[in-house]
Amino acid sequence: MPAQPASLERETVHSLLADRTREYLLCHLSTVDRTTVHDAAERLAAWSWEAAELATRERDRITVQLVHNHLPRLAEYDVIVYDRSSDVVTTGPNFADLEPYVEPIEPPRV
């Protein structure tokens, strides 16, 4: 895989922010710097749903999306660092390129 540039191009920033799940994940990371897949999925589901029963279903769906789509894509551009063995997600070297475009969202009650 070719090395990523030191900073992200404008088109890449727009592409990465175009998905609501990725945007919410980045908003969450802007307030905590470190999370787990489970915690991130639970918080994203709580932002999306009110009822606990729906939130559980939504959390499972979001977990699959995070692991198979969003986390690998963000890691490819060094926006996050994703350790599959521990399920820990941290901000990466290019996170600062996206941070001006993500606003912290009021944390849901989990």
From TrEMBL:
Residue intervals of the DUF7344 domain: 14-90
Database matches in Gene3D superfamilies: Winged helix-like DNA-binding domain superfamily/Winged helix DNA-binding domain
Pfam families according to UniProt: DUF7344 (PF24035)
Name the UniProt record assigns to this protein: DUF7344 domain-containing protein
